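Workshop exercise sheet. Pairs work together: one partner reads the sequence aloud, the other fills in the structure field after running the prediction. Swap roles for the next sheet.
Pair: D.N. / O.F.
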Amino acid sequence: ARLAIDKALQAHGGRERIEALESVSLEYTGLRTMINQSRRALGPWDREPSSGRVVFDRKGTRLYAENHNHYPGIGRFSAAWALKGNEGYHWDLHGNSHGREWMMKYSGADAEEPWAFVPRWMPPFLLLAAAQAHTQLRHAGVVRRNGRAHDAVVFTQRNRQTLTLLIDRATARLAAFESVRGDGVHGDVLDTVAFDGYRRHAGVMFPGVRTDFLNGALARRLDLAYQVNAPLPDTLFELPRDVRAPATPAHGPPHGAHHGAPAGGRLKRIGEGVYLDTDMGGVMIVEFRDFLVVVECPGDHAMSQSTIDAARARFPDKPIRYVVPSHTHGDHGGGARAYFHLGATLLTTPANVPFYRRLAKVRHTISPDPWSASKRAPRIETFESYRRITDGTQTLDLHDLGPNAHSDTLVFAWLPAQRILWQADLVFSPAIGPEVNAAMPITVAFARRLVSLGITDLASIVESHHDRVISVEEFRASLRMAGHDYP
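Structure field:
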């Protein structure tokens, strides 16, 4: 393994020359295949622009990174990271998801993840990291990829992620690296990042193309442009002046980010018999006389099981009868297997049934869940356009938005007695901070649909990705910022 790494370092310009680099800046542009983030539940997948920047100041032990990803029907979301040593910040570049308050402050061990991220974009530094792995470096044999022989060298990065480097035996260049993980939608996943188009910069070889694959399917292709030893302004590594510390505790975080239970417990009451799971963002639990309905099941089995456990703790005598995912994207429906195992019925539209039947059968050996051993068929029930769930006192209306710019079918929920509207990926508000955003085009279209359905007396809106509840006045303000209005 060490011999393969040493040869690769030499082929990339030599260890001394690589270590002598003071800084490297990378800009990338290309297209991302929206695997399980497309309008169609099972593809063909949409392709959207992807771009970003990575700056590694080796001399000053500083990093800066930003990325920009577009989502079908929604538009661009962007984020940035800046660290000096093991101290730094993560923030929303345009404030359309998290406002103008930073999302995370890094300190100590928290910084391991962003620092491990940098060499995965810059192969010479990934090889250096492997060379410094000492006794944990392993040779996993010779493997063939695209008809060529490669040395497979395994090591674990500082963030504890294990990578397999594939070093081309003919050129000694780093051709790719691989890693494995469990995923709620795809089950066992092999992620592959391949490099090509190598060119010399200050005597060191850097690739001109990066291509990402998920289980062999094209996930992203990017063109890379490098600058070596260019002057770097100190301000690049500082938190922007208009980004401030959170003035109040953050609203519920994006799905899966734990931030601790609010006063009164993890489930936050937002109306009579209506609760949000603050550890899972905007997952909504509706209490009926003899049962519960959960709206949304994001991520994977573990995340949804966490919601199930919280609901059981709060309502020990009431079973979860239904779970209602808004749509099939993994951050909204990927945790359905936990409800299949529970025996709850998944309510969805007919077009989504093939997706959820596939999800029920997908192979999970990396992160096995209890459903993996089940011989039962999942309980799935469909509705067309509209479904009302009521016990005579509590009422929950489910509406299918139908084909739209983001998903071919998308369910939103309306609680007429509480005048609470729950929705996913149709209305966006910052998770933290007091501001609201200018409405996106999909939000304007949704507001018009609400009017056509006669839903004009709403009091508040819940967003699936966090537990901030916005008022109808804030909703109107957001639409006015985009040149529209709501009754």
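Discussion prompt: Confidence is low (pLDDT under 50) at residues 250-264. What would you look at next?
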